[in-house]
Design brief:
This protein is of the alpha/beta class and about 220 residues long. About 45% of the residues lie in helices and about 20% in strands. Pathway: Amino-acid biosynthesis; L-methionine biosynthesis via salvage pathway; L-methionine from S-methyl-5-thio-alpha-D-ribose 1-phosphate: step 4/6.
């Protein structure tokens, strides 16, 4: 029996050309944000701790400015609508698994035919003096990475006997998930990890390449 295909697709730096969290921080320049990024990348602190502390540097009084910037400065990677169309045609379940934040992930993706329940991201609270990040999809008892939005928790809901699991991503938030799936489409830092661990991966620059490769794999 042929396994059902499911795709777990990152948002920042994958669906979008730029990393939106980094872009927000670079634009508003809260003191100390760059040190936190370095600590996340070097794994001195967890993703959830780093992201939470970065956004806690931004005052909620600037909410409209921050949200408008986040939404209006996004560039979608070429070929994304074609990937969604191919998934619909082939009956491939498509999930967005994002370490991004709801106030920009949902508005940006509202332009595409993705069911809301298929979009996983972090939440936000603008009720206090500074932005608070919420974690509605935290790690399960099999993950202690303090991911924030735990991609491996979601991947494990799709057992490998029933599903052929495919991950599309680019960076540190995708590392753990890449080790679990059957096939990885990788960019940027994720390529280095796939090479190091000899994972089954294909590099890509746009989603046209992903669709072409999926078609080839379907024929093989």
């Amino acid at each position: 029996m042929t396994s059902k295909k499911v795709i777990f697709c990152d948002f920042d730096g994958t669906i979008t050309v730029n990393d939106n969290i980094v872009a927000i921080m670079q634009h508003f320049q809260p003191p100390g944000w760059d040190t936190l990024v370095d600590q996340i990348v070097s794994k001195q602190i967890s993703i959830s701790e780093g992201v939470g502390r970065m956004f806690a540097l931004l005052p909620t009084a600037r909410k409209k400015e921050i949200v408008d910037y986040a939404i209006n400065n996004v560039t979608i990677r070429e070929g994304f609508p074609d990937l969604l169309a191919y998934c619909k045609q082939q009956g491939i379940e498509f999930l967005v698994t994002s370490g991004g934040i709801d106030f920009f992930v949902y508005p940006v993706l509202s332009a595409f035919p993705i069911p809301r329940q298929n979009i996983y991201c972090n939440g936000s609270n603008f009720g206090g003096s500074h932005i608070e990040i919420l974690w509605p999809h935290a790690c399960d008892d099999q993950c202690d990475n303090e991911c924030g939005m735990c991609k491996t928790t979601i991947i494990r809901r799709y057992d490998n006997e029933t599903y052929e699991r495919i991950l599309i991503g680019d960076s540190v938030t995708d590392f753990a998930g890449a080790k679990l799936v059957d096939t990885v489409f990788a960019r940027s830092h994720l390529i280095d990890l796939c090479e190091e661990l000899k994972l089954n991966y294909y590099p890509f620059e746009d989603f046209h390449e992903v669709v072409a490769r999926l078609k080839e794999l379907d024929k093989s």
